[in-house]
Amino acid sequence: MVSLDGIASGLDTTALIDSLMAVEAIPRTILTNKVSSTQTLISALQTLNTRVASVTTTAENLAKAGSLALTKGTSTDDSIAVATKQGAAPGSMAITVDAVAARQVSVSKSMTSWGGDSTLDITRGGTTQTIALDPTSIDSVVKSINDSATAGITALKVRSGTAADGTAQYRIQLSSKDTGAAATFTTSLDTDLVTAASDAQLTLWADSPDPAVRTTITSSTNTFAEVLPNVDITVSKKTTAAATIAVSSDVDAQTAAAKKLVDDINSVFSLITANSTVTSTTSSTGASSTKAGIFTGDSTARSVRTGLTEAISYPVNDRSPSEIGIELQRDGTIKFDDAAFKEALAKDPAAVQSTLSAIAARVQKVGDAASDKFDGTITGRITGQQNLVKSLGDQVLSWDDRLASRRSTLERTYAQLEVQLSNLQSQQTWLQGQLATLGTNNTGAKK
After folding, report:
1. Among 67, 197, 229, 245, which has the minimal tally of Cβ within 10 Å of its Cβ?
2. What does each C-alpha distance from 133 to 109, 117, 138, 140, 141 come to in angstroms?
């Protein structure tokens, strides 16, 4: 609608309508503020849910039997790496590295251009396969070999000198993709052997004076899997003297595993605390205002904190968790004492495992109840708040339509008033003119 601001009345009707609409829009403003605060709460709840889920995963792992059966492997020779997995048993033995695994490397005769066939036969393990070559050039032959998914070898063009006429000479180097004796190959291309494919070899109990005890094992790679149960050995060079490999309990890893549970729970607590803080501010005019955190008085956050606190701090079989270094502090956080945990572990590892597993099982139960993706209390709260945002959004849209209709009505009303006032002003002007004319006529009649 065309604005008729003050055309007759001189009033700023647009500003007047805006003021009226601001009053009319107060319910909508309240709704949008509610949407904003609810979305903030949803974001905080989602972060809380993620952290509780992390606690639950950590607790689930620690609740398992043998969760503290963490070991580390060591070697007296830096060229021998010992990797342990859960379940590895402590122990040691002497070994020597008699050989490391190698891949076959062969090279062709020198050539200035490709003068061979358009196919290449490759034989491995008694089986021969033929691959097609692009005989256009040495480069195209090399590419054909490297592009083959089944050749099992790689090709490399190598400058090998200069012919009598000054033309560059090249050799094609062929290498097996895998190491180990089983990677040995022959080809229809005339080649010379540079390095033979071979297995890695270890001698176990290498320090035994009895040859019958010393045992040789081989591997196609430089990694020997499961030499000991759940223990892998990787070698990088041949050794001349026996090296001792050992598997022992990894106290640092065990301590870190327990500490992670405490750290994860404290992370949940810190989030709840940060979002429950009440802050007071003073404006430049001296006015004071107080703002409560999004979790202040929130029953869901309070329930999570209470549940986790009880789960990690309550006694296990009449023994306090503080005996293994887990202590509840005055400020509600949990302290983990590394030294106390290691001391308890050294005295009675089975008791520490039992206590920690029981605590972890309780924490897992609380975490599952809160963060389960289907029926967790936090999950349900998030879903409820998301539904509320949708409902509030629908109400805001309804208010938008209502306010648009109201503004249109006001604009029409004030426009009509301006038109009517303009008409009245025109009539007034006409009447004033008529009255002036009557006054002139009356004066002439008296003469």
Report:
1. 229
2. 18, 8, 10, 8, 6
